[in-house]
Amino acid sequence: DTEVTQTPKHLVMGMTNKKSLKCEQHMGHRAMYWYKQKAKKPPELMFVYSYEKLSINESVPSRFSPECPNSSLLNLHLHALQPEDSALYLCASSPSGQLGSPLHFGNGTRLTVT
Amino acid sequence: RKEVEQDPGPFNVPEGATVAFNCTYSNSASQSFFWYRQDCRKEPKLLMSVYSSGNEDGRFTAQLNRASQYISLLIRDSKLSDSATYLCAVNDLMNSGYSTLTFGKGTMLLVSP
Prior knowledge:
By secondary structure, chain A is mostly beta strands. Chain A contains no helices and 11 strands. In chain A, 0% of the residues lie in helices and 56% in strands. The termini of chain A are far apart. Chain B starts with a strand and ends with a strand. Chain B is 0% helix and 57% strand. Chain B is mostly beta strands. At the A-B interface, strand 5 and strand 10 of A face strand 5, strand 9 and strand 10 of B.
């Protein structure tokens, strides 16, 4: 069982909806990540939070808005998405965000935009 | 642009076979390397880190060749349950000073009875 918990597991939303993805970890990790994975593609980095501060934004469109309320929680707010945004959204955490720290992934949220 | 390349496969092998995957990376300054396993429609799960001297975990052996910029994963005595996609991941420092993982596209392994 994964120690990084993501909700919901599945989400279907229209292009005008606003929804949020949630991620939680209680391993004391200080770095948290959002990745996006489309079918038969590798996970692609979206955002990195380190010590609750946004440290990396990989030129992600503003319709995706991350939020880190505290060291255990990471949200991804979605608004006005496009059908091509349909993908598996993976949250991950690592102890420090420094070199040598492997990432531990949550189960993911499978998002479909209609 | 940092590239991580893998043969997508699929590798079709019978139970009990030995199979090896390679992964090449473009950034000669990359420091840390990992193999992840991903089952269909599931999240990637860390299989093992790759150390400079090579390392073994049961039936799995990982090697790093810095001169040629590739890492490898060897699976001995393949089991049906080894069927999955194996993702190579390279840990790099971004300009911000924080590290991220860049993944290869993955190599699919199918182990048959």
